[in-house]
Amino acid sequence: SLENNFSMFHFSFEDDGIYGTTNAIHNDEIKKMLEDYKFMKPELDSKLLSFLPKDNYMSFGVALNPAEIYKFIYDIPSYKPMLDQANQSSPLSIEKFVNSLGGDVIVAMHGFNLPDADETESYGNNVNMMPYATAILSMKDPEMYNQITTTLIPPGLFTESNGVYSGDFDGIKVHFGLFENNLIVTNDQSVIDAAKNGGFEDNVGDTDLASLYKHSSFFFMNLDWDKYPEGLKGMLSKTMGNSELEMFQSVTNVLKEAKAYSNSATESKFELVMRNTDGNSLHTILQMADEFSSKN
């Protein structure tokens, strides 16, 4: 039941940014559910970070207990017969698949493929200017991965070379493979090359973000315009409309980064770190809101 559940919010407007905490107060039914089923792990497996390059523009991740989530769903009377039937009739048992997962998931945008010459196409239609993105999912062993790649992938969709699968989708090359029981899916060949050697020697785990990733769930966005590659800034300036660029820069002129993270089902925190303030973060945010409204 969703009755008698409450949320409390606390905001702190500091000179260098806005910091907030949300606390959930659950009713007895949900409290018992959270005690009986441990849906989350304490933190993400830090090994995943070695497979990501140092640069990071946006990332989010979660550390789940897949077996506990499956058990919770299976214990719901209306779902039990459906899952039993699916496990018996499907070539891939849902229960076995879920139990093969490690539960650590991270998705990151960590770079950009920029064209060598000026392009006239807009960003959304220009495959020569694409963000480099990687998704990593931890697995317990290679058995389920091998079953999926050998029996469930349609012939011709991917080509395989030394355990790495590659496919071309409307000009976007996608690669995936299993490295140290971590499934890596990416459009950045350098990620695959590094994974073959155990990961990047200089990786995101060596940055200030490492502490953020030591949570059961997290989100990060880099809004520091000064750290964007010059080629990217130039391309955005050319391909965005004037109003779009002005609105984007209204944000990047004020905010440096955004973070959110949690280690429990009852409390989460967020940070809006300012790049530029007048000594009063609330006043700065209100000014930014005024800029938005004046441009719409």
What does this entry look like structurally?
The protein has 9 helices and 12 strands. With 296 residues, it is an alpha+beta fold. Strands 1-2-12-11-10-3-4-5-9-8-7-6 form a 12-stranded antiparallel beta sheet. Strand 1 (6-14) and strand 2 form a beta hairpin.
Q: Topology of this protein?
A:
Layout lengths: L5 E9 L2 E9 L2 H9 L21 E6 L2 H9 L5 H10 L4 H6 L1 E13 L16 E10 L3 H9 L7 E3 L2 E6 L2 E8 L2 E5 L2 H7 L21 E6 L7 H10 L2 H11 L2 E8 L4 E8 L6 H15 L1
Antiparallel strand pairs: 1-2, 2-12, 3-4, 3-10, 4-5, 5-9, 6-7, 7-8, 8-9, 10-11, 11-12
Give the CA-CA distance, first to last residue: 41 Å
Order of helices and strands: EEHEHHHEEHEEEEHEHHEEH
Average predicted confidence as pLDDT? 87
Helix content: 25-40%
Number of H/I helices = 9
Strand content: 25-35%
Low-pLDDT runs of 5+ residues are: 119-124
Strand order of the largest sheet: 1-2-12-11-10-3-4-5-9-8-7-6
How many β strands by DSSP?
Answer: 12
Instruction: Report Rg.
Output: 22 Å
Largest sheet, in brief, is:
12 strands, antiparallel
Indicate the multimeric state: single chain
Which structural class fits the helix and strand makeup? alpha+beta
User: What form results from the Cα inertia axes?
Assistant: globular
